[in-house]
Design brief:
The complex is a heterotrimer of chains A (348), B (426) and C (59). Chain A has two domains: 167 residues, Response regulator (Rossmann fold, 3-Layer(aba) Sandwich); 123 residues, no CATH class. In chain A, 34% of the residues lie in helices and 21% in strands. Chain A has eleven helices and 13 strands. Chain A has a six-stranded mixed beta sheet, sandwiched between helices. Chain B has one domain. Chain B contains seven helices and 26 strands. In chain B, the strands form seven sheets. In chain B, strands 17-19-14-20-21-22 form a six-stranded mixed beta sheet, sandwiched between helices. Chain B has a four-stranded mixed beta sheet with strand order 8-9-1-13. In chain B, strands 5-12-10-7 form a four-stranded mixed beta sheet. The relative contact order of chain B is 0.16. Chain C has a two-stranded parallel ribbon with strand order 1-2. Chain C has one domain. Chain C is flat. The chains are: A alpha/beta (348), B alpha/beta (426), C mainly alpha (59). Strand 7 of chain A pairs antiparallel with strand 26 of chain B, so a sheet runs across the interface.
């Protein structure tokens, strides 16, 4: 039988309300208060072996002591599942439950679950790290809340992969992943379209992204004839041996190479390792991706001050936004450190 | 004009075995491997041809997968199956066609010359059992694998042509075994009669056209300069569209999934019941500039208008580049009052927390997810490998275990909806 | 891809060549291609010197 450890605050342990919020951390054997309903909902598959109790103020004032104490109690008991709350819409209690769940999962690797009202501030803070079932705002729904925690908690403890949040009845942790769907995509598509055409409700399977916050434009280059301009590309142009091992898709790296090496006769051969376009034209003439020859001519003509001595390169295909943002930030910081005023970025 | 009425005879194959005589007996397909290899070796560009079988449920892995083709042949009606390759460019899609269901002719080969960039050698894997089998629709069919090697000195494009013709020829040859045998069922593909009061639904069918080895063929020619065009769904069923895309295994639409395009089959199945199948618009994805993308997508939207479509389903092939063409078509159709549903795979990054789509328009408010091929996955050890002992990196034993990029899984998030994956919020 | 650049939040955007060769045009003679490329880079430099309140796609 699976062993469950349950965390509740002073109120649900029967110690008292707000006036007892500084009650100390304690460990009690067996189920206490709502733990008895939890025990019943676990339906003989798991047993509440210990109950951890702490006053809401004590938890927050002494969390550096309380959390380690709770962790060692859980570890000693060899828990298979940690349940905190449910805390409904209680602010401090909710935070205690969620932060304990995060610590138990991340420090001990023991499955943890809590129940919170979706608008409880702890949800926004911990939803990406903690498994939470939604509850109503008050303890009047204790029975339903505990039943949901038991149902999802048992599945989580058994090691099966949880279903998507909407099917499992959990608050989404905010990531998308593959799932096997038996209704073919074409059937879903036709159903969705017919609903849309007929004006009936339908649910898109992917939400459109929110519009990104506009980035304030950089101030213009005051005097081009005195400016240092860098050439940057996501077109994957690298020395043939790809010395920095930039990936041909979903790149995580960028590199810079001396611009002079691109000149014919410089003895370095470049090619595109970009996984998203037909590179034969760029391989034949790298200026078609990094316009070194033309930019150099404009320097000679006095149109622009000078070219930064390196060009910067990454691969922009199948690239996640997070990787792209890291790469862009990295290149920008290097350009600033080198005193570059402006950059021309060629993209495929 | 002879109406576009096509009878499709289905012969369900439940077992394939090697034997003396190449024949179809009930639901058992028997193949004389040397005989069928001989069909392929008539083309002198192919040096060696070996035939191997992979059944669903076996602890078998197929590597270096190229195209997959369903065995089909014409029984009656004008033209040839796979027109432009196995016959002239005469219009197909009428008369009677025979198919062997439940089997695919899958080519497996390395290419003679090294690739870089777009065509860098990328593995293409099909596992026939275990959890990794959910990553390919071809885990669910019996694969008749043609393991081929090129003649020395051949260039990639020439060899590619030889491989394609080999698989099409074998597919036709095997389907011909069913001639004069009783089919399991006969489906009639005829959408010429419209039912009043049912919505008219068009299919916007975007094909990859990105240059050599990343291209799709229409009646034997690449779609390089394709202006969006109308094609009858029956032409697609008769093999008018053949795949030549070898970029990322996960994101390609092999010929098999053109022949069995789930959107076309679903629209046909529901024609006259809850919709009228208004027609199919093929579009080349990967148009080279913003201008060309806008021009092409406007043209496609206009054709949907000519079809008097009330709604359209849109699919693409490829990555972000091609997503722009499809999304623009979605936008222009919606602006014309044609409602749309877009089918797309997702790209939310390995942790699943990033932006799931490459490019969107505000009008794309009805999206069906085709799953994702993010990060990497562990391939378990298997009992048998078909195709090669080593992966394309020349180091990793194909027998496993090994870790590999998800985009090596053959048609994992099939862009015409050929697989079971879907992206969900967790 | 000006539309992609816009959706990613770039501010100074200009269209140039084609996806596989944004600053190349293989259909021209080498001399003509170089002159064309120089024109593209010159336009890019001009956009860098243009004051901007919000994102703009330069012709």
């Amino acid at each position: 039988m699976l062993k469950v450890i349950h965390y509740i605050n002073q109120f649900f342990a029967g110690i008292g309300g707000e006036d007892k919020a500084d009650a100390g951390f304690e460990v009690r054997p067996g189920a206490v208060g709502p733990g008895r309903a939890l025990q019943a909902a676990l339906d003989g598959q798991a047993r509440v072996v210990l109950t951890l109790v702490c006053g809401d103020n004590t938890f927050h004032d002494q969390r550096t002591d309380v959390i380690p104490a709770a962790l060692s109690a859980i570890q000693e008991a060899g828990a298979d599942l940690f349940v905190a709350g449910p805390a409904f819409n209680a602010g401090r209690y909710g935070l205690a439950c969620a932060s304990l769940c995060a610590a138990v999962e991340e420090s001990l690797g023991v499955p943890a679950i809590t129940g919170l009202f979706p608008e409880n501030p702890a949800v926004e803070m911990y939803r990406d790290r903690v498994l939470i079932v939604p509850t109503s705002h008050s303890a009047a729904s204790m029975k339903e809340a505990v039943a949901a925690i038991a149902r999802v908690g048992l599945r989580r403890a058994s090691g099966v992969r949880l279903r998507p949040a909407a099917e499992e009845g959990t608050i989404p942790m905010g990531y998308r992943a593959n799932w096997v769907e038996q209704t073919p995509a074409a059937v879903r598509a036709v159903n969705m379209l017919l609903a849309k055409v007929a004006g009936r409700p339908y649910q898109s399977e992917v939400d459109l992204p929110p519009k990104p916050e506009p980035v304030p434009p950089a101030s213009p280059v005051a005097d081009l004839s005195k400016a240092t301009v860098a050439l940057v590309t996501e077109g994957g142009l690298v020395p043939v041996d790809n010395p920095d091992h930039i990936e041909s898709s979903d790149a995580t790296k960028w590199a810079r190479y001396p611009l002079a090496q691109l000149a014919a006769g410089a003895g370095v051969s470049f090619q595109s390792i970009h996984g998203g376009y037909d590179a034969r034209w760029v391989n034949a003439d790298p200026n078609r991706m990094v316009p070194r020859d033309a930019a150099q001519a404009l320097v000679s003509a006095g149109v622009v001050g000078r070219l930064h001595e390196y060009f910067y390169v990454t691969v922009g295909t199948g690239t996640s936004v997070a990787h792209a943002a890291e790469i862009g930030g990295g290149i920008a910081r290097q350009l600033l450190a080198d005193g570059v005023h402006a950059a021309i970025v060629t993209s495929t | 004009m002879l109406p576009f009425r096509l009878e499709v005879e289905t012969h369900r194959v439940r077992q394939v075995q090697l034997g003396e005589v190449t024949q179809l007996a009930g639901d058992v397909l028997q193949i004389n491997a040397a005989e069928v290899a001989g069909w392929v070796l008539q083309d002198s560009r192919i040096a060696t041809a070996r035939l191997e079988l992979a059944h669903p449920g076996e602890a078998t892995r197929i590597v270096h997968c190229l195209d997959a083709v369903e065995p089909r042949a014409k029984l009656a009606g004008p033209g040839s199956i796979f027109p432009g390759f196995l016959g002239g460019p005469e219009t197909v899609g009428r008369g009677r066609t025979v198919r062997l269901a439940g089997v695919s002719v899958l080519t497996s080969s390395r290419y003679p010359q090294p690739f870089s960039g777009l065509l860098a050698a990328r593995e293409a894997l099909v596992d026939m059992s275990g959890t990794t089998a959910t990553y390919s629709p071809f885990s669910q069919v019996i694969n008749i694998v043609l393991v081929l090697t090129p003649q020395a000195g051949l260039d990639n494009a020439d060899y590619d042509d030889a491989v394609r013709r080999a698989s099409l020829k074998v597919a036709q040859g095997l389907a011909r075994l069913a001639i004069d045998q009783a089919p399991d069922d006969v489906a009639v593909f005829d959408s010429s009669e419209a039912t009043a009061d049912l919505p008219r639904v068009a299919y916007f069918y975007q094909l990859q056209g990105q240059g050599p080895m990343a291209d799709t063929f229409l009646y034997g020619r690449t779609i390089d300069n394709l202006v969006p065009s109308l094609i009858h769904p029956n032409e697609v069923i008769d093999g008018a569209i053949v795949s030549g895309v070898y970029v990322y295994a996960a994101f390609k639409n092999p010929t098999y999934l053109h022949q069995n395009n789930p959107v076309i089959w679903e629209l046909q199945a529901r024609h006259g019941k809850d919709l009228n199948f208004a027609g199919v618009i093929i579009n080349r994805g990967h148009n080279y500039t913003q201008f060309d993308k806008e021009r092409s997508s406007h043209w496609a939207a206009k054709l949907a208008g000519f079809l008097q479509a009330d709604g359209a389903i849109l699919t693409a092939e490829g990555g972000g580049n091609s997503a722009i063409d499809m999304m623009l078509a979605c936008q222009y159709m919606e602006q014309m009052g044609i409602r749309t549903t877009v089918m797309t795979y997702e790209n939310p990054g390995p942790d699943g927390r990033g932006w799931p789509l490459f490019y969107t328009v505000p009008e794309a408010d009805a999206i069906v997810s085709l799953g994702m091929a993010e990060g990497s996955t562990r391939m378990p050890p298997v009992a048998r490998v078909i195709g090669d002992d080593l992966l394309l990196d020349d180091q990793t034993p194909a027998i496993g275990p090994f870790e590999t990029a998800m985009y090596s899984q053959y048609c994992a998030p099939s862009q015409v909806g050929g697989n079971v994956l879907v992206g969900r919020q967790f | 891809m000006t539309a992609m650049a816009q959706s990613a939040g770039a501010n100074r955007i200009m269209s140039a060549g084609r996806i596989p060769h944004p600053v190349g045009d293989p259909l021209r003679s080498p001399e003509e291609e170089f002159a064309w490329r120089q024109g593209v880079v010159r336009r890019a430099l001009e956009t860098l010197a243009t004051p901007l309140e919000q994102a703009r796609v330069f012709p």
